[in-house]
Write a structure and sequence with these properties.
The protein has 135 residues and is an alpha/beta fold. It has 2 helices and 8 strands, in the order βαββββαβββ. The strands form 2 sheets. Strands 1-4-3-2 form a 4-stranded mixed beta sheet, covered by helices on one side. A 4-stranded mixed beta sheet has the order 5-8-7-6, with helices on one face.
Length: 135
């Protein structure tokens, strides 16, 4: 059985968008089925490692993926993302990347390719990375 490590390379992704309100509606809707809350800032918003602002040239050609707990969650992400203004870029289904790879792809309001993926049955070593700062 293979082993893969995730969550070690990227600290955050900064996505620049044209319409912050439209993007926030999209990400709030798309991420709700994944249980990922969107936190509002004064001129931005964030969801876990994703930071979104409208303060510069648009991000173009980006693809990123959120992890889903199961196939049903991938389907709920896809449906919610379309309902929140996304465009289909690949309906939920098995992909050939590795056994059990089940994903859906939706384009956000600026054309960023957003994926939700379930990697099949696997054991997670930790639910998340937790940072605690000392005073």
């Amino acid at each position: 059985m293979g082993e893969a490590h995730a969550g070690r390379l990227l600290d955050h992704v900064h996505l620049r968008v044209a319409d912050l309100d439209a993007s926030r509606r999209f990400y709030e809707g798309a991420l709700a089925p994944l249980g990922i809350p969107v936190r509002a800032g004064e001129h931005s918003f964030a969801a876990d490692e994703l930071y979104v602002s409208a303060d510069g040239p648009l991000t173009q050609g980006l693809h990123f993926a959120f992890q889903a707990a199961d196939r049903e969650t991938v389907q709920r992400f896809y449906d919610a993302a379309l309902a929140a203004g996304g465009r289909d870029n690949g309906a939920p289904g098995e992909r050939e990347y590795h056994p059990g790879y089940y994903a859906a792809y939706v384009l956000d309001p600026d054309g960023t390719n957003v994926e939700a993926v379930y990697h099949g049955l696997f054991e997670r070593s930790a639910p998340s990375v937790v940072f605690t700062w000392e005073d």
